[in-house]
Every structure is written in C-alpha cells, then in structure tokens.
Specification:
Largest sheet: none
Oligomer: single chain
Helix content: over 70%
Order of helices and strands: HHHHHHH
Number of strands: 0
Strand content: under 5%
CATH superfamily: lambda repressor-like DNA-binding domains
Shape: elongated
CATH topology: 434 Repressor (Amino-terminal Domain)
Number of helices: 7
Length: about 100
C-alpha cells in the first residue's frame, strides 16, 4: 500500500463529504494529528485504522488504497452510495435524466 495514495484518497473522500478531520478521528477513536499525518502520507496507518477508514466511508478497502489517478472505483463507489440512499421515484428520475443525456 502506498501511504501517499491512501492518504490522498482519504482526504478527497473527507472533503467531498464536507467532514472535518476531528469528526473522523473521533469516530475511529484516533488522534486528529495521526489522521492528518495519514492524509499527508507521512504515516502508514495500521491495518485496523485503514480498514476502519474504509468502513467509515462505506467503501471497499481496495478502492481506497489504489492510486486515485488510476482508479475510478472510488468515484463509482461514491456515486453508488448516494444513489442507494435515494427514494425509488428519485432513482427513476435519475435514470430517465441520464438516458436523455447519453
């Protein structure tokens, strides 16, 4: 696992969701400075913390460790997560709208 790619992916996920480092650190029971070091690629997270982060963001562990530039899985998982939370009629509307676009 490349800790710089991992940290970059975590930071992207955090910012996309408008979260603070302190929110995630508190949920995982780790120090904010440790999470900041992980995001900067200065520290390699323990396996427990890496899995905890993937679970926190509700994504596959593999998608968070792959380089973001080479991996559209992270974005796909984010989209699927948001779609899964939609009501049935909202999903139908989205589907019809996408069909019109493509």
């Amino acid at each position: 696992m490349d800790c710089k790619d991992f940290g970059k992916n975590i930071r992207i996920l955090r910012k996309r969701r408008g979260l603070k480092i302190s929110d995630i650190a508190a949920a995982l029971n780790i120090h904010t400075s440790y999470l900041g070091q992980i995001e900067r690629g200065a520290k390699v997270p323990s396996v427990a913390v890496a899995v905890g982060l993937a679970n926190y963001f509700e994504i596959n562990f593999q998608s968070v460790v792959a380089p973001i530039e080479d991996n559209y899985t992270l974005l796909r998982n984010e989209i699927l997560l948001h779609i899964s939370k939609l009501e049935h009629y909202e999903k139908q509307f989205l589907y019809k709208t996408l069909l019109e676009i493509i």
